[in-house]
Design brief:
Elements (H helix, E strand, L loop, with lengths): L1 H6 L2 E4 L11 H5 L14 H14 L15 H13 L5 E5 L7 H14 L4 E5 L3 H4 L5 E5 L2 E6 L1 H6 L3 H10 L4
Parallel strand pairs: 1-2, 2-3
Antiparallel strand pairs: 4-5
Helix pairs in contact: 4-5
């Protein structure tokens, strides 16, 4: 369950974010795990401050009180990332994090990825091999099995699934 994953230190950013469009970024980030202050009242000021801190970490151009429905797809991806970072994960899993964003937003996301994964192990699930190039280690899977393992450079040199997919995708950019 999501709560069990959180307790185990695992945060997942899904391809299709599960955000409530009419809540602001803060309410989405703490949905189901709100911070409380005196007398059990929700501490919105503290929650907003924590969200704003994470937004600054990823150099976001919007604030914690922005309504989700007013954000671009890339900004919604950032809101989902903030939600995951607030859990201080040991393991961060990104499932096709760039599937719904344009090339410029994708470039920005990966420039910031180092900040996101500084204190945890990260797994990126992707079919875009341009995205895979930032990884320290790439595992290529086919039919539920690992068929190749290495760095981008090693896998491009080897004859195999990765090189075939890389050559196919590279044609798009010529």
């Amino acid at each position: 369950s999501p709560k069990d994953s959180e307790k185990a230190g695992i945060s997942i950013i899904h391809q299709d974010q599960q955000l409530v469009p009419y809540f602001d970024v803060t309410r989405n980030a703490f949905l189901g795990s709100e911070l409380t202050g005196k007398c059990g009242k929700m501490d919105f000021k503290k929650m907003r401050s924590l969200v704003q801190e994470k937004l600054k970490l990823i150099d976001s151009d919007f604030t914690a009180d922005r309504q989700i429905s007013s954000l671009s797809v890339g900004q919604r991806e950032q809101a989902a990332i903030v939600t995951a970072l607030l859990q201080n994960p040991k393991l961060l899993i990104l499932d096709e994090p760039t599937a719904a964003i344009d090339a410029l937003e994708e470039k920005y996301l990966y420039e910031e990825f180092g900040k996101l994964s500084r204190n945890c192990t990260s797994i990126i699930v992707t079919h875009r091999l341009a995205s895979a190039q930032i990884a320290d280690r790439i595992l290529v899977m086919k039919d539920g099995r690992i068929v190749q393992d290495g760095t981008h450079e090693e896998l491009v040199e080897a004859q195999g699934e990765y090189k075939a997919m890389y050559e196919l995708q590279r044609q798009w950019y010529r």
